[in-house]
Amino acid sequence: MSRICQAIGEEFDAWKQRSLTGVELEYLYLDASHFRFHDGARAEPVLVAWGITSDGQPRLLALESISAESHDAVVGFLRGLIARGLRPPLLTTTDGAPGLIGAVEQVFPDSLRQRCLFHRARNVVAKVSAGDQDEVKADYWGIFDDITVDAGAAAVAEARRRAAAFDDKWRSQYPSAVACVTDDLEVVTVYLRFPRDHWRRIRHTNLIERTFGETRRRVKVIGRLPGERSCLSLVWAVLDRASRGWRGVVQTPANVRLLQQLRRDLHHPPATDESASPDIPEAVTPAA
Question: What pTM, to 2 d.p., does this model score?
Fold first, then answer.
């Protein structure tokens, strides 16, 4: 057993230092789970990053223990990914932790961010009385499911129309629940700008949450892990094994073209040369 644990630890050490230069990332997912591995301390977060590449394949990217899901801790984690060669994603999906959101927006300012729809659904339902929870939850998912118009502005507009109907129906009874939807509508509909085939894979972080659940089940009988390195090695071993069965996304030629266009628009916008603009003739001076 000691030899097995040592081998896993060595494999993990090599894995966390590997180069990410060759990973052509499109989607990045970030989430954390808490484990106890220090004497007398509360459970501490282990932050995990995984993603989906340009060929549609899932990749486990990194994991690291942090003292808290604070802005500075997550910024350091993300900058470590960049230092190892990871290119900025098109879309990052997270929960609503303020430190996580702020760090993503600082480190990847040109990437889009999607708020996890399942986290938001739990927030909405928590503000509703038990007798109405099922109906409110169904109406909530009715905003996002089965949108048949084209991806992009048309799909976002359809979600907004449905959200307005949700608002009309429930605001008088549950204004706080409705505000959870309408106040953050922009960040919960970002995924609709991406290929339709990808929508159900990129609008939440549930995959990593389910895997974390398996990890917690395995360590539950232990109570407290022997230390940080043992904890991270075990979490990595479970995630590494689970990631072999993760599903990616379908990459059709149309999907690839849409993602390439989004990357050009977000990360490589065309430079503008106002002096050469054909819209303003040289002989015309704009009025003050």
Answer: 0.84
